[in-house]
């Protein structure tokens, strides 16, 4: 290898190391008791749902939109939807353990029905309360 090749390799390795050190730290689980599910639907208000137990939440809208959310300890998922493409159901589970590996991080979105499910941790709750 030529000297210039080593220089390019060194710059790439240095940039990779810098990006690795500056990335957000991965979640190692967190506290399910301090986390909750926030449901956003136009025209409807839902109380925050703690992620400590198991339950199903049915979301019915006036236009016939129907979604079912399954909540389990530490996470949730969109179980059913009557939208055309079912992308929201295919997005899978949102848990405290997989937040850093999901494409949408802490959210499941049903775009046709305008339903947003969001996992909020204890740290985020504190930030929201602070004016």
Fold and architecture overview:
The protein has 131 residues and is α+β, with helices and mostly antiparallel strands. The chain has a single domain, classed as mini-chromosome maintenance (MCM) complex, domain 2, CATH 2.60.320.10. It has three helices and nine strands. The C terminus is likely disordered.
Strand percentage, roughly? 25-35%
CATH architecture: Sandwich
Number of structurally distinct domains: 1
List low-confidence stretches: 126-131
State mean pLDDT (0 to 100 scale).
84
Q: What distance lies between the first and last C-alpha atoms, to the nearest angstrom?
A: 58 Å
Total DSSP E strands = 9
Structural class label: alpha+beta
Radius of gyration: 20 Å
What would you give as the CATH superfamily? N-utilization substance G protein NusG, insert domain
User: What's the level 1 CATH class?
Assistant: Mainly Beta
Please give the count of helices: 3
Main sheet? 5 strands, antiparallel
What fold name goes in the CATH topology slot? mini-chromosome maintenance (MCM) complex, domain 2
Shape: elongated
Order of helices and strands: HEEEEEEHEEEH
Estimate percent helicity: 10-25%
Task: List key phrases describing it.
alpha+beta, 131 residues, elongated, disordered C terminus, 32% strand, single chain
């Amino acid at each position: 290898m030529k000297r210039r090749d080593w220089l390019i390799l060194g710059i790439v390795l240095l940039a990779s190391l810098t990006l690795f050190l500056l990335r957000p730290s991965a979640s190692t689980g967190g506290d399910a008791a301090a986390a909750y599910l926030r449901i956003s639907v136009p025209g409807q208000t839902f109380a925050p749902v703690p992620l400590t137990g198991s339950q199903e939440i049915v979301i019915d809208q006036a236009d016939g939109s129907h979604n079912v959310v399954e909540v389990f300890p530490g996470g949730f998922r969109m179980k059913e939807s009557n939208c055309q493409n079912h992308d929201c159901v295919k997005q899978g589970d949102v848990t405290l353990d997989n937040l850093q590996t999901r494409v949408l991080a802490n959210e499941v979105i049903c775009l046709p029905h305008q339903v947003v499910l969001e996992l909020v941790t204890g740290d985020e709750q504190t930030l929201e309360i602070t004016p």
